[in-house]
Amino acid sequence: MSSQPPHPALLIPGPIEFDDAVLQSMSHYSESHVGPAFVSTFGDTLSMLRKLFQTSHASSQPFVISGSGTLGWDLVAANLAEPGDDVLVLHTGYFADSFADCFETYGSRPTQLKAPIGSRPQLPEIEKALKEKKYKLLTVTHVDTSTGVLSELKGLSELVRRVSPETLLIVDGVCSVGSEEIEFDKWQLDGVITASQKGIGCPAGLSISMFSGRAIETFKNRKTPPGSYFASMKNWLPIMQNYEAKKPSYFATPSPQLIHALNTSLTQILSKPLSERFAIHREASQKVKKAVTDLGLRQLASDSADQANGMTAIYLPENVKVPELLPNLFKKGVVFAGGLHKDIAAKYIRFGHMGVSVTDSNRDDIDRAIKALETGLSEVGYQKA
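That's the alanine--glyoxylate transaminase sequence above. Prediction below.
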């Protein structure tokens, strides 16, 4: 049983529910961010991230910086692209627009390759785009939190290496790391950015990323200085290397309590094979998606190959309004999220199912949420045809 005060189950695509031990580690007594005990914890945390991302290359570099997942965009745009560089942004929803905006802020030139809502750009169109222009980077949102669309990385990486091998492949994994399989080395990824509060299961406040040796060399070979101070790899790279080597270092103050929470969460995640964790998320996802279908509802991602395992975006019946349904679910002890995609925000809701809500067999969050959705829809006037 959880020792947390009674509260509605938070089943949005992040922040998610947190394990008791993770929250308790946040209450660690105050300590110096350059003291030996904290330096050791931070160093171990960075090393564990290598296992989570599945990289064993010594040249790969993890970063953990105070901030949200959005800071990951700045790390990429400020350090790996230069003013005037062309960047291909694969668009599967709201967050591709934002990533493209970030690139523009730093002076590079993003081109968005878009797909219909609920789908993703297909490999032949991506190949065509790569052959038409030389792109410094290609970015893909692994799971777009606005649509629940899952992008396939392995085939994409093989395509990029074949058609445009000099292009860096960057993954926005904010809503996928910890709930979707990512094999950093095997799939030859150059960067994956994420955040603490979703599949990793740690409170919000940490920007977490992994970059390949090739990406780090791209940064080192820049012709111009990075356009950011706080997000500059020039400032952060030696800090991360020193911490992992258990050497005190300072550029900007980290959050010791959040690092302790991340350490606890990663320890829990890595206590079992990652394959088992991903399988549990797939099983929970299939259960949710079957329930959605049984209710006569549709997902934004209509093709099963495009459906994320950590969240489900659900179209509402025409006679059901988001402002009516969500408060009803809240009264039943369940919190879902409203729509985020600007073109259809009023037409759908989002159900997050990742982390302890699916991996802890003692929790009934998912079953309660499915039941609440069924009865909640009925109470606001929906009847399955």
